Amino acid sequence: MVSPPAPLPIQLQPIEEESGLGFILRVFCANGLSITSGRQQLGIKNWRSLTPEDVLVLSLITQTPPDWLTLRLMIRSTALPEHFQYCGHTFRSQAAKPNMGAKVCPDCVREKRWCHRAWILPGAVACPIHVRCLIATCNRCGRTITWGRPAVDVCTCGSYLSDSDGNLSGRNRHAIAWSEWLDTRLRQPTLTDADSEGLVPRLLDHLTIDGATAVVCAFGIRNHPSSTLSPNDIRNLSCDFLVQVVERGLARLWSIDDRPQDARRLSECVHAPILERLRRNGVSTSDRNSASLLLNFTANRSHPSNGGRYSRGQLDLFDQR
Ligand SMILES: [Zn+2]
Ligand SMILES: [Zn+2]
Question: Which of 194-203, 252-261, 281-290 is most confident?
Fold first, then answer.
């Protein structure tokens, strides 16, 4: 711990839609500090589970209002163990493990040089402004992009973050609409029943961001009834694959919107363990009840892993890209 912590010599203005970690990265870089060494000097254990004391120190050295930082950093929940708060929303801690990383839109960081608050979400897959995939790995060195990079738009290998292959087409309209919905929800911290304006199926509107992401993944992660997934498969999803998961999940959810009982038709392609975890430890009553309802409708007795067969009538909903 720096004693006493002093404001850094170079101060920057935070941007309304910026993530707290992206802002800290910008300020540290402007002062010639890496985010990793800065964290160690400040005695912060983990960026993904910050305490109010950590926020006060960061507020002091960046001369930023603590309320702004509290809303935009991942803060350990005091009410619910194993949960954290981000932008006023509650997330289960396992949400932080797979993808709550340092994904970027390479076009945004090149043009604007700051990180959007939505990119940090596990379900964030696309940039609606540039109609393209986010990237989680460096095109040059192939390593995962981290917050320990030397600048917002530069990888730890020293090359600019870029990727020329991420453009999304009209076929990915669900991924773009989903990304817009995520940011709409982030702007409304206290809203639990959002008006999605048709961006996503209505059955997702009364769920938390955490719960809606889990439901979309549960419905989209299998591209075929015979797909089998290990926990490692789910943890290591690439952004490209996540776009496909979101597209499939939302296409299937749209097909049962207003008639969740029709989820029975999709039994074979729903990944029940994700819904079972949501039923057990979802962050809101709506999340837990919806998971329970969907599990009842999709009780997967015919999946090959349960010794059954799938029905041919489902094939039109499978995307085998
Ligand atoms: Zn962008
Ligand atoms: Zn690199």
Answer: 281-290
